[in-house]
Specification:
Elements: H1 4-15, H2 21-28, H3 32-44, H4 57-60
Helix pairs in contact: 2-3
C-alpha cells in the first residue's frame, strides 16, 4: 500500500534521484532510518523500477 508519504518520496525521487536519504527524510518529515526503510520497500516492491541519468543532448554533442 502506497500512502501519502510514499507518494511524496516518489515525487522527490522522480525530480532528483541523487538526493541523499537525509535530504529525502527532511523533506517528508521522517527520520533517516524510517525514510530508508520506505525507499527500500518501494524498490523491493518494484514501484521504483530503476534509477537513471537524463543527459542534456546539447552538452553531450548529440542532436
Amino acid at each position: 500500500m502506497v500512502d501519502r508519504i510514499d507518494r511524496k518520496l516518489l515525487t522527490l525521487l522522480q525530480e532528483d534521484a541523487s538526493r541523499t536519504n537525509a535530504a529525502l527524510a527532511d523533506a517528508v518529515g521522517l527520520s533517516p532510518s524510517s525514510c530508508l526503510r520506505r525507499v527500500r520497500r518501494l524498490r523491493a516492491a518494484g514501484i521504483v523500477d530503476r534509477i537513471v541519468a537524463l543527459l542534456n543532448p546539447a552538452r553531450t554533442g548529440r542532436p
